[in-house]
Give the backbone structure.
Amino acid sequence: MKKILAVLLMAATVATGAVFAQAKAVKVGVSIPTADHGWTGGINYYAQKAINDWKAKDKNVTFYLVTADSAQKQVNDIEDLMVKGIDALVVLAYDSAPLTPVVKKAYDKGIYVVSVDRGLTEQAQDVYIAGDNPGLGRVCAESIGKDLGGKGNIVVLEGIPCVINSERVDNFNSVIKAKFPGIKILDSQPANWDTQKGLEIMTNYLQKYKNIDGVWAQDDDVLIGVLQAYKESGRKDIKVFLGGAGSKIMIKKVMDGDELVKADVTYPPSMIASGVSLAILGARNAGLPGFYQKKVPSKIILAAELITKQNAKDYYEKDSIF
């Protein structure tokens, strides 16, 4: 359940003002990509939210939040953060390979490193926290398979070709093949987690295939373009559309009982906020209550959870930009 990590972090940070007043002073650098699409917009929102929440209750934490529109800028940003004397670094790599050397440099200097989502090409972090990409593929396949009653024709819009995308797509395909042999995947193409690309590919799918029963867009940004293409086509044959990541736009559709978007699956950008809390606790060597080990677990994978009309309100964050 998603609540487990939240409860642990809450338990670790809810304390009296006196306790925070005595806490070790730490400097935390947070380095993330610029908000270039919906999910990274959510990353920016939750990073700032975590910083604001900590500032309100703990005056002994100093934050430096930097955003980068390229891998090189992010490398430069992290070099600057080290000059500022940070004790902890929270990093979501713009691109894993070029970021790994500078993050390893910080790690080797004794800076507590929390790597979020995209990871690094070698061990250079104290904690890695991310969503469950294989799980997202499996849960999406289960959902769309059940909604279609185990039969029909579907099309798939993938993400950017990479390890994350492969984990999602491979597990989706495996579940469809094993559990829903009556479902045929007509086509599967990369949409790069991009709304415009989703619109273009779905427009082509609608022209190419006369009967489509379901669509897996993998990402809610892509699904926006897919739904636009479907609306403009005037067709009425598609029964189910499924994205992924849990954007507030799609969660609201699920909450409202939308006849086409019946579910969504989480890949929460709020993971960056948990990363911020883990960095502070790690830099202070505070551990987490409930864990009998001396250190915070080195790898935390957040479950891919199915969002339905029955539980959608629990996932809806109206103030988030994603």
Q: What stands out?
A: Residues 112 and 198 are 39 Å apart (CA to CA). The radius of gyration is 21 Å. Confidence is low (pLDDT under 50) at residues 10-19. The first strand starts at residue 26 and ends at 33.
